[in-house]
Amino acid sequence: MHIVITGANRGIGQALAARYTARGDQVTGTARSGDALARLDVTDPEQQTAFANGLADRPVDLLICNAGVYLDKGQELETGFPADMWQQSFAANVTGVF
Ligand SMILES: NC(=O)c1ccc[n+]([C@@H]2O[C@H](COP(=O)([O-])OP(=O)(O)OC[C@H]3O[C@@H](n4cnc5c(N)ncnc54)[C@H](OP(=O)(O)O)[C@@H]3O)[C@@H](O)[C@H]2O)c1
Protein backbone atom coordinates (compact mmCIF):
# COMPACT_ATOMS: atom_id res chain seq x y z
CA MET A 1 0.00 0.00 0.00
CA HIS A 2 1.02 3.60 -0.59
CA ILE A 3 0.17 5.53 2.57
CA VAL A 4 0.31 9.32 2.93
CA ILE A 5 0.68 10.63 6.48
CA THR A 6 0.61 14.36 7.19
CA GLY A 7 2.66 15.64 10.12
CA ALA A 8 4.94 12.60 10.06
CA ASN A 9 7.97 14.31 11.57
CA ARG A 10 7.04 13.66 15.21
CA GLY A 11 4.44 12.21 17.54
CA ILE A 12 1.75 9.84 16.33
CA GLY A 13 2.42 10.58 12.66
CA GLN A 14 6.07 9.64 12.99
CA ALA A 15 5.21 6.45 14.88
CA LEU A 16 2.64 5.45 12.27
CA ALA A 17 5.15 6.09 9.48
CA ALA A 18 7.73 3.90 11.20
CA ARG A 19 5.26 1.08 11.75
CA TYR A 20 3.86 1.10 8.22
CA THR A 21 7.38 1.27 6.76
CA ALA A 22 8.46 -1.68 8.91
CA ARG A 23 5.39 -3.58 7.64
CA GLY A 24 6.60 -3.06 4.06
CA ASP A 25 4.22 -0.31 2.98
CA GLN A 26 5.34 2.67 0.92
CA VAL A 27 4.97 5.74 3.12
CA THR A 28 4.96 9.34 2.00
CA GLY A 29 5.29 11.41 5.14
CA THR A 30 4.97 15.17 5.22
CA ALA A 31 6.44 17.90 7.39
CA ARG A 32 6.34 21.66 7.55
CA SER A 33 10.11 21.99 7.55
CA GLY A 34 13.30 20.11 6.81
CA ASP A 35 14.29 18.07 3.79
CA ALA A 36 13.75 14.52 5.06
CA LEU A 37 10.01 14.43 4.30
CA ALA A 38 7.71 15.92 1.68
CA ARG A 39 7.07 19.58 2.42
CA LEU A 40 3.50 20.41 3.42
CA ASP A 41 1.92 23.00 5.67
CA VAL A 42 -1.71 21.92 5.51
CA THR A 43 -2.89 25.52 5.96
CA ASP A 44 -1.16 26.61 2.75
CA PRO A 45 -3.25 25.95 -0.41
CA GLU A 46 -0.23 26.42 -2.67
CA GLN A 47 1.70 23.74 -0.77
CA GLN A 48 -1.36 21.46 -0.88
CA THR A 49 -1.50 21.83 -4.67
CA ALA A 50 2.24 21.30 -5.11
CA PHE A 51 2.14 18.21 -2.89
CA ALA A 52 -0.87 16.76 -4.74
CA ASN A 53 0.80 17.39 -8.10
CA GLY A 54 3.88 15.59 -6.84
CA LEU A 55 1.75 12.53 -6.12
CA ALA A 56 -0.02 12.60 -9.46
CA ASP A 57 1.44 9.35 -10.76
CA ARG A 58 1.37 7.54 -7.42
CA PRO A 59 -2.13 6.46 -6.35
CA VAL A 60 -2.80 6.81 -2.63
CA ASP A 61 -4.34 3.80 -0.91
CA LEU A 62 -4.62 5.36 2.54
CA LEU A 63 -4.50 9.00 3.58
CA ILE A 64 -3.93 9.72 7.26
CA CYS A 65 -4.75 13.36 8.03
CA ASN A 66 -2.69 13.38 11.20
CA ALA A 67 -1.34 16.95 11.13
CA GLY A 68 -3.19 19.07 13.63
CA VAL A 69 -2.95 21.47 16.53
CA TYR A 70 -4.47 21.77 19.98
CA LEU A 71 -3.87 25.45 20.54
CA ASP A 72 -6.85 25.96 22.84
CA LYS A 73 -5.66 23.49 25.47
CA GLY A 74 -6.31 25.01 28.88
CA GLN A 75 -8.28 27.98 27.57
CA GLU A 76 -11.17 29.25 29.68
CA LEU A 77 -14.44 29.95 27.90
CA GLU A 78 -14.86 33.31 29.65
CA THR A 79 -11.34 34.64 29.01
CA GLY A 80 -9.74 32.50 26.31
CA PHE A 81 -10.27 31.40 22.75
CA PRO A 82 -8.93 34.51 20.99
CA ALA A 83 -10.15 34.77 17.43
CA ASP A 84 -6.75 34.25 15.82
CA MET A 85 -6.25 31.05 17.81
CA TRP A 86 -9.65 29.77 16.66
CA GLN A 87 -8.79 30.70 13.06
CA GLN A 88 -5.43 28.89 13.23
CA SER A 89 -7.06 25.81 14.75
CA PHE A 90 -9.69 25.60 12.03
CA ALA A 91 -7.12 26.27 9.30
CA ALA A 92 -5.12 23.22 10.39
CA ASN A 93 -7.73 20.87 11.86
CA VAL A 94 -10.70 21.46 9.55
CA THR A 95 -9.78 23.25 6.32
CA GLY A 96 -6.35 21.60 6.27
CA VAL A 97 -7.92 18.17 6.44
CA PHE A 98 -10.49 18.97 3.74
N1 LIG B 1 -1.98 12.82 21.39
C1 LIG B 1 -3.28 12.78 21.71
O1 LIG B 1 -3.68 12.38 22.83
C2 LIG B 1 -4.32 13.19 20.70
C3 LIG B 1 -5.66 13.12 21.04
C4 LIG B 1 -6.63 13.48 20.09
C5 LIG B 1 -6.23 13.91 18.84
N2 LIG B 1 -4.91 13.98 18.56
C6 LIG B 1 -4.54 14.44 17.23
O2 LIG B 1 -3.72 13.47 16.60
C7 LIG B 1 -2.75 14.13 15.79
C8 LIG B 1 -1.34 13.73 16.23
O3 LIG B 1 -1.21 13.95 17.63
P1 LIG B 1 0.23 14.08 18.29
O4 LIG B 1 0.04 13.91 19.77
O5 LIG B 1 1.20 13.21 17.59
O6 LIG B 1 0.53 15.65 17.99
P2 LIG B 1 1.92 16.43 17.93
O7 LIG B 1 3.02 15.66 18.59
O8 LIG B 1 1.62 17.81 18.42
O9 LIG B 1 2.25 16.47 16.37
C9 LIG B 1 1.44 17.20 15.52
C10 LIG B 1 1.97 17.07 14.12
O10 LIG B 1 1.14 17.88 13.27
C11 LIG B 1 2.00 18.76 12.55
N3 LIG B 1 1.31 20.00 12.20
C12 LIG B 1 0.71 20.89 13.02
N4 LIG B 1 0.21 21.91 12.30
C13 LIG B 1 0.52 21.63 11.01
C14 LIG B 1 0.30 22.32 9.80
N5 LIG B 1 -0.34 23.51 9.74
N6 LIG B 1 0.74 21.75 8.65
C15 LIG B 1 1.38 20.57 8.67
N7 LIG B 1 1.66 19.89 9.78
C16 LIG B 1 1.23 20.43 10.94
C17 LIG B 1 3.17 19.01 13.47
O11 LIG B 1 4.23 19.55 12.75
P3 LIG B 1 5.34 20.50 13.44
O12 LIG B 1 6.38 19.58 14.03
O13 LIG B 1 5.87 21.34 12.31
O14 LIG B 1 4.65 21.32 14.50
C18 LIG B 1 3.40 17.59 13.97
O15 LIG B 1 4.09 16.83 13.01
C19 LIG B 1 -3.00 15.63 15.93
O16 LIG B 1 -3.84 16.07 14.89
C20 LIG B 1 -3.72 15.72 17.26
O17 LIG B 1 -4.56 16.87 17.34
C21 LIG B 1 -3.95 13.63 19.43
UniProtKB/TrEMBL annotation:
Keyword entries, A-Z: Oxidoreductase
EC numbers for this chain: 1.1.1.276
GO molecular function: 2,3-dihydro-2,3-dihydroxybenzoate dehydrogenase activity; serine 3-dehydrogenase activity
Any one Gene Ontology BP term: siderophore biosynthetic process
Coiled-coil stretches: none
The protein, known as: Serine 3-dehydrogenase
Species whose genome carries this gene: Roseovarius aestuarii
Encoding gene (name): sdh_2
